[in-house]
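Cross-posted from the bioinformatics board.
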Amino acid sequence: MITAALEEREHYLNASYGLKSWLLTKDHKRIALLYLGTITLFFALGGLFATMIRIELLTPQPDLVSSETYNKLFTMHGVIMVFLFLVPSIPATLGNFFLPIMIGAKDLAFPKLNLLSWYLLVAGGLCTLGAMFAGGVDTGWTFYTPYSSTYSNTYVIATALGIFIAGFSSILTGLNFIVTVHRMRAPGMTWFRLPLFVWSNYATSLIMVLGTPVLAVTILLVGCERLFHIGIFDPALGGDPVLFQHMFWFYSHPAVYIMVLPGMGVVSELVATFSRKRVFGYGFVAFSSVAIAVLGFLVWGHHLFVSGQSVYAGMVFSFLSYFVAVPSAIKVFNWTATLYKGSISYDTPMLYAFGFIGLFTMGGLTGLFLAALGIDVHVTDTYFVVAHFHYIMVGGTLMAYLGGMHYWWPKMTGRMYPEGWAKLSALVVFLGFNLTFFPQFVLGYLGMPRRYHVYPPEFQVLHVMSTAGASVLAVGYLMPLVYFLWSLRYGKLAPANPWGATGLEWQTSSPPPTHNFEEPPVVTHEAYDFAALLEEAQVG
Amino acid sequence: MASANPLALREQFDTAAQQKDASVLAMWIFLVTEIMFFGGLFLAYTAYRSFYPEVFGAASRTLSATIGAVNTAVLLTSSYTMVLAVRAAQKGSRKALIWFLILTMIFGTVFLGVKAYEWHEKFVEHHVPGPSFHLEGEPLQGQAQLFFSLYFAMTGLHALHMVVGMGIMTVMTWRAWLGRFNADYYTPIDVAGLYWHFVDVIWIFLFPLLYLIDRHVPK
């Protein structure tokens, strides 16, 4: 009976049917789902490569693959996970879906551009995958010259072209978000009433718009170098390979913040909702996102401590890298302070948020080890670095992404997921993650270099632990995939506001109508104003 | 709100003013991305210019400052006619708009023609990076080649933007011909103008960097 009622009400999913209504849609919510499907596939593929890497590393000898194949495996794992999964992950799915709704807009400012950016990601992805099936690429996801210019005989140009195209997808998304936040806010939605998820996506967009073009021109130069041997990065002609590293990290360090800032935004939403409190120090948390975006552009040199950069430059970059930890720490402290005397409920999204806070803190603190000039020399290019950035990208971003998916799933689909299974998945992911990556800190500190598949036998125990953890992690990731799909048909129907959350997205029906709101919303109070929500409920 | 084309207000916007503001802001942000894009090349140029100042000076002196200056004047004039086109659109004068757009395209074509002539000269003089590259009396051929690699990358990318700009101008002229713009709705002309001026400004930086620095040093 209730199902019949749902079927009758028109919403964005049943407004029109057919493949064309999806492939030519201008609705930001449908485009978000297109992105969701696409990046899930990329994640599965990147995960497959990770699995092969971990299986190979079970033993100290090469047994599953040759050295060349191993090089290709970790390269493709990195390329797919960074450029095709993590960079678009939260902004292009959750951001695309919720940013317009959260500010009370009918859509993004440029819906066609939004659709174009999805096609660009698909085109870039196909190009990269094409290169992979043709034979792969072995330079590492960083494409350092001269590996990528003089010495590689693999499909560098096709892969780089794919990243170049996917980069424009990210530029257009960033541009669309910035204009939308500036120009499309509902009446009464002032800057300091914006949910923190919007602030963090805004900061992310700034980085996308400022950083990605530099990656594009860098890739273009590597392409010219390979095709015409123009010498920009070739010492034989007076060029300098280190210039590539500067230009690459000028984008790719800020890109780390492209990956983690939206996750921080998700966690701010989750912590507020499940503590039933306004985020402590809202203004500080909002501005720390912008501060991270700005400072993130000034620290790229910490990737070049051992690349022949001057000591003075190294010292400045070291200092600035410590400095960028301040706004990140502000966020962690403020989330914790929000919990204080909050009325906390341990629903699945909150479990993921807790996971994020813990793992991100560890990832961030080990980042400070790496920002210290002396320690960095010891652990450069070891598993310590690998563990550090996986704590940020997987322990941070992916936890937040999953937390956000659980939190907003009822709104996106109109169905609840099974809470018991979901709680179990959060636990399995957390345990599996730590078992996979904590041993890698130890391995790296003991001297295990990254990107090698042959290693001294005394490292085997730690490698076996890591591989075992990866298997647990894989189970943890498969669980949501299964029960999310299951819930689409069998899940309980979701009410408009299952969590008792504030925010405009919870004031419209689940799933929302095509134009997001039946009546254009007018905002009258601050974000996370639970008292006002309670009052309205009593009056209503 | 009187508009020649009532469909010009897209459904995600509430008012025409909001739509215009959004379009103009989007173009400014796009231009920022362009600055970062060219910025990579400017960085490479600056780095190598400071590594090899003498070689870059010698290579730079083979370019004709006169031709470069004439071309700069041509391009600045095209920006002037573009401003007049936007002015004509503001006043809702369709005929003037079309003529100024066409004039802008003519100046743009002249610029590209001169540029093509300069590139042709490089082929004749063996100044194109590659196996047949040779710069008279320069012991550091690799470094000299680096200058010309950057020269071609920077002027090539700039010319590509000019070609895109010509495409935009053609579409704008066509739409102006169809009477799509009036004094209340001319955002596309405004935004196209921003792009055209930006491409001009890039050249204002390229010209001194490539043609003028160290020109006074006697050889």
